[in-house]
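Chain X:
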Amino acid sequence: MRARAGEGWVTITELADTLARDHGLSFRAGHGIAARVVRAREADPHAPLAEVVRQAAVEVAGREIPFTEAQLDELLSPEHFVAVRRTLGGPAPEVAGAALDVSRSRLMADAARLDSDDAYRDIAVRFVTASLQGWAYCRDNVEECRNVVVAKGSKLGDSHQLWQMNEINKLIWPADGGVGVIDEAAWDRTVQIAMDTQNLEGATVLTAPPTDGAWTNDIVNEALANLQDLGVDTTGSDFQPTEVTLVEGGN
């Protein structure tokens, strides 16, 4: 996995970030240099990386920015790429570990409150009801939902957003057991795969089975009952994806 993480210039954005963070370049200039580095090394894989970076910096920024080969090896390593991202939500182990601890605590507190606070549970049911109603609406009104997203300032155009909405719909519909319902057999299969499938270092996603109460359909079943009372089709058994023609540039 470590080797795969270093393939395909996955970590090259750290060069751009370092140029902006430590050398005073704009992010645009940093990414311009990074793009030139990738193109140059793809054209000549044996070219010294430090020289490639130096030349790209001259072309984009008008000045040399010296790095040694050892510095660039460290800069572009998967370990550095992960460790340096310490902002909230980042993958650095200490940040991700703290976020997981907070999430677990909040999840346990939330589950307890759902069992003890009727008003809070009502909010949860109404929230899920509205969310699933929205997915059903976008199933039946795919172009209108695309228009809403584009009108809100999407950086991507009409055809791309229509394609994306269509692909999401194909992931959701048809929903034989009702939209949002967790299928127990699928859950068990996913757990087994997560416990049995090892990565290249021999680790698995799960090291122990999930505890009781790790999942529930209680809230979603109440939401589905609400939607059925409203006459909303919650299975989409007749769903057919729309035909989308992608336009160059996504417009």
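Chain Y:
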Amino acid sequence: MICEVQFDSIFIDIRDLVTPAAASIRELTEPLASLSDDEFTDKCHTFVANAKYRILEGMMFPSQALAHIAYNQPLDCVPRSLLLASLLRTRFPPSDVRVVFGILLDHGRQKHAWVELDDKILESTRKAKFDVGYGMYCPELRFNDIEVL
């Protein structure tokens, strides 16, 4: 399945938005190679979750999200989730890591993006790593750099 999204004024394959092979992503994760899987996940999640939050319009590549973080600029759930999935994909196989676009039912109905790691919800916008009982997540599209489900 190919799924295209509009990015700036062009259409790209949505899988190209998860970039584990990018040099900027590898530079962040290579020093974490000796950590356990749980420690690695914690470090990646904390890095992304600590970024400033604000709802933005449009897509950005993980490398652009890193620039926003470096300049203390806010990110919303989409670039955070793309960045977190890219970081995690340097360590975990594609079957274990997916970006999810869907609806979060929490005090209403809102579009949202999150990451699934081993079928657990890994929330990129909150300090709590795995979301338990926060709201009802209704996935509409799951993908990573290899597949679209």
